[in-house]
Each structure stands twice: as C-alpha cells, then as structure tokens.
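Kindly draft a sequence, keeping tokens residue-aligned:
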Amino acid sequence: MQKALHTRPLPEAIDGAYARLSPSQRKLAEYLLASYDDAAFLTSTELARRLETSDSTVVRFARALGYQGYPALRAALADLIRAGRTTHGGRMASALQRLRTDASPLARLLDQDLAALGELRRTLSPNLITEIARRLRAARTVYVLGLGISRSLAHFVAFRLRRTGMHVETITHGGTESWEVLFHISRNDVMLAVGFFRGYQDIVRALRYARSKGVHTIVFTDTPDSPLAAHATRLVVARRGGLAVVNSLVVPMAILNLLTVAVALQMPGDAVGKLQAWDRLRAVFEDSLPQALKGSRGSE
C-alpha cells in the first residue's frame, strides 16, 4: 500500500480538510469516521457503490485529504484499526466482550465506557460538530426527537439549547398529540433526532415528513446502517464500543454535550445574556417560594 503524504491520523486529516470538502466528499468522510473498521476492507469501487457515488469521487476525496490515492487512504484506515486494537482500552474492550461473567462487573462496564470514549477521541471530527452547531444556531425552531432510551438525551439537548435562548420543540412520545407539534415545521427549522439500536418507525416517519418540507435533518445513531440514517441530511454515529448488552449512553451523551457547548461558543455574549435572563426569571419565581425551599434549589 502507498503511504500517506502526511503522518497525521485519518480523523485529523479529515478535520483539517472538512471545510473544503464537497457535500459528497463530506458524506464519505462521515461514513469513514463511523465505519472505518468496515471501510478498510472495501475497494474504491465497493465504497463508491455503498455511498451511491463514483470511483472518481472517492479518489478525489483521498487526494483532498493529502493522500496519493485510495490505497494510501486504506492504509490510513488500517492504521486507525491497529491503533484501536493496540491501545489498553481497545485490548480491554475486546477481552471483556468475550467474558460472560466477571468478578468485578461494574469495573468491567467502566472499562468498556472508557474504551468507547477513547475511540470517540480518535474519530470525532470537531468541524462536523461545529457545522451542526452553526446550523442549529441559525434555525428558527429546533425540533428534538428521542423515543425510548433516547428520551433522556433529547431532554438534555433541549434543556441546554433553551438555556441559550433558542426556540426548541421536544417530541419524546409517539402518537397523534406528539406529532401535532410538527404542524408548523418549515424549511427554516432543523430537526435533530436521536435513536439507537433499531430506529423507531415513529422517528423515521417524522424525519421523512421533515425532509418533505425541506427541513435539514440531523441524526445521532449508533450505526451507519440504522433505519434513521437514510433520512439524515447530517449523520453522526455514536459508536458505543462493545456495549451491545448494557446499551451505554456515555458516548452519545459526550457528543451531544460537545454539540451544545459548540452552540454556546458561537454566541458567547448572547448566551451569557440569556443565562442572566434565566437567573432573573428564576429569582421572580423563587421570591414566592417558602424560605425552606429556597435553600434547596440548586443551579443546573
């Protein structure tokens, strides 16, 4: 295999070139970051077919990252796999996946979470998160969807975004009353959907409806083959390592936390002003509370 023209890890190469990539090249970048262990075994033709693009687009993408061609890009993908397998967290996660019992199950789960976070550190593209934050910031209304175990993540994102003064609608249950929230959705809005493991049909329907209205859809899920992925304008894959049994939310929570901070960073003065307004509003309501309750109220 050819060698790359630079020595930076693939995620850093993608991040450095991300702003200059075309939409089809960004789709390639996002797929490789989410599925590098699968993509490393694909030819350029197979990768192009999987993403419904052309061989020439794949080759141009490799060169845009600073590689001589696709073989050099595959070598970089292989390096990324080896890095994951040779780190302490990677070895520990692989070993723990094979264990049925453990004398210290809580320590085992913690090690798996740490390994998954280590993989996130190697593969996350800050520029992708920043671009999504910019899109959220420009939206008239952000519709946040999350069902099942993802409800907690949806509420977290909605809470943080509202604290920066953004208008947010939250949908965390299916059924007619919940979907009535979408009545006024338009192309000036953004839909952010969080779904894992099996992709709830209610979220698929909501995403499909949003796309029919010209709405930008951002999907956070755990695999690029999720039923939600096909309806995403922007896809973020929160790989959870070997956590298929316990369904840990550590990695998606970490990514969503970064996203809400990225939104606030784009509006430093405005965000602080909105938080101060929240404090004044809280003071108005707390003035009517009994003294005993005032002391028990903490900030979030």
Q: What stands out?
A: The first helix runs from residue 10 to 17.
